[in-house]
Design brief:
- The complex is a heterodimer of chains A (95) and B (482).
- Chain A is built from three helices and two strands, in the order αααββ.
- With 95 residues, chain A is mainly alpha-helical.
- Chain A has a domain of 26 residues.
- Chain A has a two-stranded antiparallel sheet with strand order 1-2.
- In chain A, helix 1 packs across helix 2.
- Chain B is α/β, with parallel strands linked by helices and 482 residues long.
- Chain B is 38% helix and 13% strand.
- Chain B contains 15 helices and eleven strands.
- The chains are: A mainly alpha (95), B alpha/beta (482).
Chain lengths: 95, 482
């Protein structure tokens, strides 16, 4: 399964991941190799097999709808690159 | 002191042969002397360690100590530690000082263990050689031209080099067992759900498990006792009682039924490793076990299925690392798109990027059924192969890795070559079963490990099986002599 540079760039955009333009071919090559490896899965017929999402086949445990967390925003925002008035700052989105 | 096991050190502390402060200082001195070469630690927490040691000595004096009180350990840098850098081996989190302790860390702290620091690892736990860390590779103390294995390479190397008697690791596709094998130590990956993942930086949420790495099964039992058990903060944590793992270490193995999967002994297995595994199995026959061949017919699909599931889940888990709220942010982002793209592009290494890309592709519209859903179906087939095998046998044994520790750079050129070093371990994570690696000999000067795989929640039996072997053999006592 061979990926083109265009496809690599499309996937990189979906993943919001910058790839140096001089490395795109190398990534295309590596990813194509991995996809070939993965292709072995098609050797077996799984039409009647149920997918296994959780290794012990368990369902998501629920908890009561009650408030248990306290406000720790100030503590967590100490780690932020840029904050103001309790908000995380990013470059302007809307002109 | 550094040659003693956790169990021996615990007794020594109780008998006042030495204090926790003396012990901690001795290990810290050893780390300072040997770690510049081995590079097992990302962060050494000397002040915290000495403060914990003082507190431990108080408890010991009052007779209120438990088995881990005052015992130095180190945490793989994938666990959040409050007030201490928690980097996950990545530039992305190099500046991340965690505001909280992971459950695993809390439990060791409550047990009175002394944290010496945070151990090196493959970036975001993605790797089998500890060559992808932002902080540089870790060296195998048996031969410093070889890798320690990964992703818990720092943990394995530090324990083997006797820089610390026990360390935590995590295992998503073999990252406790394979480095334990390469470094000649004992490591255990518990059943999925036994140990809380809260505060453990997530790679693949349906596969990740934390576990102990030490030089003996006896020590792993002591560590697992502190780590295991229900945690309401982890929604995949299993709510069932934790047995006393140490109490049953000495149980007789008379009548134990061992299965050897024929798929584990095919081509690609180094003949010297095969010979050592069979020799180890012979020891088990002498201990009263019976041995039969079993088959896990879908084993060959475990690599392909894993390299869809793990990257897919990683692409989702690593989406939170975006330069906005914490972690690395690129300088002078032009706009929001640039902020995301460059923070992530610059913050992540090549292997992490490869896996995010594969995972994104596998989950994208038009490909989800062919890749992720298909992989989950294969996961069920593999799981059912094991269930069938466990109707006939109690434990499954085989090599942990197809080779001994390889040389630096030997497998870095081709991602698939690296992935193939996990072929015996991956299926165990897909099925969520518990697995251990114990040292069973040497090929040349490099350790060889044997994998022991148990049925769900059979950690007591696994530790018992490993311990009885360690009572009649000496491989686990060998030291690289640093």
């Amino acid at each position: 399964m061979s990926l083109t540079s265009e496809e690599v760039n499309r996937i990189a955009w979906l993943a919001r991941l910058a790839i140096d333009s001089d490395k795109t071919d190398a990534y295309a090559h590596d990813l194509s190799g991995i996809l070939d490896f993965i292709e072995q899965m098609s050797a077996v017929d799984t039409a009647t097999v149920e997918p296994l999402a959780h290794p012990l086949d368990q369902a998501q445990r629920l908890r009561p709808d009650a408030v248990t967390e306290t406000d720790q925003r100030a503590l967590f925002q100490q780690l932020a690159p840029a904050v103001e008035a309790g908000l995380y700052l990013v470059p302007k989105v809307i002109e | 002191m550094h040659e003693k096991t956790i169990a021996e050190l615990s007794l020594g502390l109780k008998n006042k042969d030495f204090s926790s402060q003396e012990l901690t200082q001795a290990f810290l001195t050893r780390v300072k002397k040997l770690d510049p070469e081995l590079n097992t630690f990302i962060t050494v927490t000397e002040e915290i360690a000495l403060a914990s040691a003082r507190a431990a000595d108080d408890l010991l004096a009052k007779g209120e100590a438990g088995p881990l009180t005052g015992i130095p350990i180190a945490q793989k840098d994938i666990f959040c530690t409050k007030g201490v850098r928690s980097s996950c081996g990545s530039k992305m989190l190099d500046n991340f000082i965690s505001p909280y302790d992971a459950t695993v860390v809390e439990r060791f702290n409550q047990a009175g263990a002394v944290m010496l620091g945070k151990l090196n690892m493959d970036e975001f736990a993605m790797g089998s050689s500890n060559e992808t860390s932002f902080y540089g590779p870790v060296k195998n103390p048996w031969d410093t031209g070889t890798v320690p294995g990964g992703s818990s390479g720092g943990s394995a190397s530090a324990v083997a080099a006797r820089l610390v008697p026990g360390a935590t690791g995590t295992d998503t596709g073999g990252s406790i067992r394979q480095p334990a094998s390469f470094c000649g130590i004992t490591g255990l990956k518990p059943t999925y759900g036994l140990v809380s993942r809260w505060g453990m930086i997530a790679f693949a949420s349906s596969l990740d498990q934390a576990g102990p790495m030490a030089r003996t099964a006896e020590d792993c039992a002591l560590m697992l006792q502190a780590m295991a058990g229900f945690d309401p903060r982890d929604s995949t944590s299993v709510d069932q009682p934790v047995p006393d793992y140490s109490a049953t270490l000495g149980t007789s193995l008379e009548g134990l039924r061992i299965g050897l999967p024929k798929e584990f002994f095919g081509e690609g297995l180094d003949p010297e490793i095969a010979r050592l595994i069979h020799a180890a199995v012979d020891e088990y026959r002498k201990l009263g076990a019976t041995v039969k061949e079993v088959s896990l017919p879908n084993m060959h699909l475990s690599g392909p299925a894993y390299y869809v599931v793990a990257p897919a889940e990683c692409s989702s888990n690593l989406a939170r690392l975006d330069g906005v709220r914490y972690g690395y942010r690129c300088t002078e982002p032009k706009d929001l798109k640039d902020l995301y793209m460059r923070s992530r592009g610059e913050g992540f290494g090549a292997e992490v990027k490869r896996r995010i890309l594969i995972g994104t592709y596998a989950l994208s519209a038009g490909y989800y059924d062919a890749y992720y859903l298909k992989a989950q179906k294969i996961r069920r087939l593999i799981s059912e192969d094991f269930k069938r095998a466990y109707q006939e046998v109690d434990v499954i044994m085989g090599p942990t890795s197809p080779s001994v520790a390889f040389r630096f750079g030997e497998k870095s050129a081709d991602p698939i070559a690296m992935y193939l070093s996990d072929i015996y371990t991956i299926a165990v994570n897909l099925a969520g079963l518990p697995g251990m690696s114990i040292p069973v000999g040497f090929s040349g000067s490099l350790p060889v490990g044997m994998q022991i795989i148990g049925n769900y929640f059979s950690e007591s039996r696994l530790l018992n099986v490993a311990h009885r072997y360690q009572q009649v053999t000496e491989w686990h006592r060998r030291s690289p002599g640093l």
